[in-house]
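[Meeting: bench + compute handoff]

Bench side (C.D.) handed over the final construct sequence. Compute side (W.E.) agreed to return the predicted structure before the next meeting so the bench team could plan truncations. Sequence as handed over:
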Amino acid sequence: MTIRRAFVIALVLGFAFATWNAAFRIPHASAQIPAQIGAQRWPSIDVDRKNKLYLMMSVATGNPPSPHSQIFFTLSNDGGRTWDNLPQTRNLSKSPREDFGPSLAVTKVGKPRAYAVFHNNNGGGVFLVQSKKGKKFKTPPAMVPPNGGGRFGPRMALDSTEALNIVWGDTQDFGRQVFFVRSTDMGATWTEPLEISKSSGLAFEPEIAVGPDDAINVVWEDASQGTSAIMFSRSEDSGQTFSDPIRISKGEGSATEAHIAVDGSGRLSVVWVDTSEGDLQAFFSRSVDGGQTFSDPVNVSRNSGADIHKIFVTTFNDTVYIAYNNDERNSHQVYLVKSDDAGLSFSNPVQVSQADRSRGRAHSVSMVADKRGILHIVWIDSSIVGNDEGLLIYSNTQDGRDFSAHRMILAAI
């Protein structure tokens, strides 16, 4: 998507006060208003052990033949009250590619370092960008081997030794499988790609989480039986081998868009979008034995007529948070459900976003809980500029019910 210069200047100077209520704050930077604000999509947020927040996103940057989408980064040192995105937000990819879909991971021990992987829509390569310290990043990004295209949707997780664990959906050789690679030297060298899906059909859209025992847990979609199901595999030997895939979703409907989290006790929380009850609903299952068995799936959205997408799960101690966007005609908002008993029961959904549904929707949520238990949540509001890329909104909550004033985090390019 292209944001024209004159339109965006008017957007920055005027739309917030004309179309948003007083709860939404615009950064006071009138003397430093950038010439252009890029439309945003696919945010990814994480936190370090000092509760600093790291945020990456895909940002539209110009008309062809110039780069169309790049990976941008901003940091908050004060729990989300302020961000260093103005007068200019850092462009980490700076390439002639269409870079998209960052997956961000920040070290929780030792020196704070951020890593992110993303893919190139033009050729399908997977790229890695990493910080030297805090917010200072090495550039340009490095391609994760093997070189070449056909690899999409990379996701990354770090273990306690700062080893990088990456999965992606691979479309080479006219197939679709999930592959894994690992680096123990900050991306200098990598293991040989290992196929973990072992599907007779199509396997894609993997997600990864590493537990406190450094076990590597992966979920993905598998359409080998004709209807998509959510599959799971685990490695307990640093990615040398993975267990045979097992099916988590149980219904007859299609199961898609899986996401996974591991809490401090090693319990696995898996969520996905499921059509088994007729509509697109948010489902949840958990494992307390390292993925050997999973609980019966539970519908946590519980909304007749729902149209759920972009589901996301994160944990803090015994608390499980699940967020998603509901694209039902009368909704178009981001919702949050919460469990205080490690996933045994869930609250009713709470609306988080305030998108003007006559103009667009809220979507593409990402979230993380810091060491104090504060949940930090970001999403895209497409109703502000009237297209689906929109602008990024941030909020936080301590209880999953009351949220801080929403704040726009503009990408100044």
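W.E. noted at the follow-up: The first helix runs from residue 5 to 19. C.D. will use this when planning the next construct.
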